[in-house]
Specification:
Length: 280
């Protein structure tokens, strides 16, 4: 069940990342992100009221949920920045490698990792390095390329930590209540950053339907991968969710004409094949 939830999450995020690529180059990132989180909060609050669910939450669960939501918001901002700079084919494999951190965390906490799992981790890291190196050779602006790598790496690590905390928090409450407080924490985090940096701008009304779709996809994906915490091996849900990158790359190839060479396709396949082996 964890794997199925992860795959549903991956499908949502694949479409989400394609839309982010289209939006991030035309509109202010913080403003867009703030509206997306606000729409999520409003929709979730309405669902809780309609379903007569209590907004009460235990203090410890609330702290974990708030931390997970804030980290997720910052990681999503990093994702927006990465997609603003580089095409999907460049940043998606790096962002999608976040399950590797789950493996290292498992080792740190005493879990036994098999030789084949280590080979899979090596394949993921090697494939990511190959994609990054290949893209860098044809990049006209090396500084922008380095920025894309930096934001992708920050997003990758942030997602891994956020999901781990969220899956622990989900054991203490209803999935939709947990998701609501996580999104509320994320919204407040983005709002505070935007106000302090004075980088919030008015979002055009014509963009609202697209932002609503982004909010639905992002909220659904977060709820799916977090709810894997209710089942055995929740890390498998995290691993499966990372396949969103390959969905995003294929969609970018179809709709945005973002081409890959044969060797780059092999590297991408290696990355996601290694990721799949770690949890599937």
């Amino acid at each position: 069940m964890s794997v199925l939830l992860g795959l549903l999450s991956a499908l949502c995020w694949g479409f989400h990342d394609l839309l982010v690529r289209l939006i991030s180059q035309r509109f202010h990132i913080l403003s867009t992100l703030c509206v997306v989180f606000a729409i999520s909060c409003a929709g979730l609050a309405g669902k809780l009221v309609y379903s007569s669910l209590s907004f009460d939450i235990q203090l410890e669960v609330g702290i974990l949920t708030s931390l997970s939501g804030a980290l997720f918001a910052f990681s999503t901002y990093a994702l927006y920045r990465a997609f603003e700079i580089g095409p999907i084919r460049r940043v998606a494999p790096i962002i999608g490698a976040y399950p590797v951190f789950s493996v290292f965390w498992a080792v740190f906490t005493g879990a036994q990792i098999s030789l084949m799992q280590w080979i899979a981790v090596t394949a993921v890291l090697g494939g990511v390095a190959f994609v990054a190196r290949n893209m860098g050779e044809t990049e006209e602006n090396p500084e922008r390329f380095r920025q894309a790598l930096l934001w992708s790496g920050v997003c990758c690590f942030g997602f891994a930590v956020s999901f781990a905390i969220g899956q622990k928090a989900i054991l203490g409450g209803d999935i939709w209540v947990i998701t609501f407080y996580a999104r509320l924490s994320g919204f407040l985090s983005v709002l505070i950053i935007g106000v302090l940096s004075r980088r919030l701008h008015r979002v055009p009304l014509r963009l609202l339907p697209l932002l609503c779709l982004l909010a639905i996809l992002d909220t659904g994906a977060f709820a799916f991968v977090t709810s894997a915490g209710h089942f055995s091996n929740p890390e498998y849900g995290t691993v499966a969710s990372s396949i969103s990158g390959i969905f995003a790359i294929i969609l970018g190839w179809i709709f945005l004409n973002e081409r890959l060479t044969t060797y780059q396709w092999i590297a991408v396949a290696t990355v996601f094949g290694g990721i799949a082996f770690l949890g599937l």
